[in-house]
């Protein structure tokens, strides 16, 4: 008798355990939220992976090759900028905002050339006339071109900007192009990732980089190392008085660059 009661009690307990639990509304929300978060993380990883792949491509090809690359597959440009935007969201300060702040202190009559403008934030943030240049244009105000061959008239610009856009194996020709479009005494601003200027990890020496830019017709005005993510270089275009010898050397260098572009 006692044993049958025990069986009953055991059976009753088992029966209760086998009843399906009804999830609470909050548990339901949690279950729906988890896959969504997982998918968001996966999309972010894929976006980051594509960004790194395209970024590597842009650093190891010429500007002309990059232009052809995006012409062939325009969606890659959007993918690159989505990844770029995601990367920049983690930075405590963005170099383009520092440059915009500096530009707002200059004359509103200054004409600006924004090389590799991306979303054309400079043009959207200042009252100056801005030539927004990039490899692909999804905006009627952005000029799609090779940064080494822009449609801007010579000596017509007061400020040339390269904000995280000095990429490619022929980036020297981009600096030459900025020299061409700048007026004598005009400003050249270059913002670059700090890791690119760490000689301990294979990066360029900042002083050597600055000297190399100076050799292309500029004076170094200032170097800003205050940000932990990027370095900002300020140069001015030299007022060049050509002697017969310096003119000859200039033409030789120019011819060498032109041969390299073909």
Strand order of the largest sheet: 3-2-1-4-5-7-6
Number of domains: 2
Q: Radius of gyration in whole Å, from Cα? A: 28 Å
CATH topology of the largest domain: Rossmann fold
Family: Belongs to the methyltransferase superfamily. RRP8 family.
InterPro entries: RRP8, RRP8_N, SAM-dependent_MTases_sf
Enzyme class: transferase
Keywords: Chromatin regulator, Methyltransferase, Nucleus, Repressor, rRNA processing, S-adenosyl-L-methionine, Transcription, Transcription regulation, Transferase
Describe the structure.
The chain has 262 residues and is of the alpha/beta class. It has 2 domains: 38-89, Ribosomal RNA-processing protein 8, N-terminal domain (Arc Repressor Mutant, subunit A, Orthogonal Bundle), CATH 1.10.10.2150; 99-237, Rossmann fold (3-Layer(aba) Sandwich), CATH 3.40.50.150. It contains 9 helices and 7 strands; from the N terminus they run H-H-H-H-H-E-H-E-E-E-H-E-H-E-E-H. The chain has a 7-stranded mixed beta sheet with strand order 3-2-1-4-5-7-6, with helices on both faces. The chain is globular and about 40 Å long. The termini are far apart. The model is unreliable at 5-36, 41-48 and 257-262 (pLDDT under 50).
SSE topology:
Blueprint lengths: L1 H17 L6 H35 L3 H10 L2 H14 L6 H10 L6 E5 L5 H5 L3 E6 L7 E3 L12 E7 L7 H11 E12 L12 H10 L2 E7 L5 E8 L6 H18 L1
Parallel strand pairs: 1-2, 1-4, 2-3, 4-5
Antiparallel strand pairs: 5-7, 6-7
Helix pairs in contact: 2-4
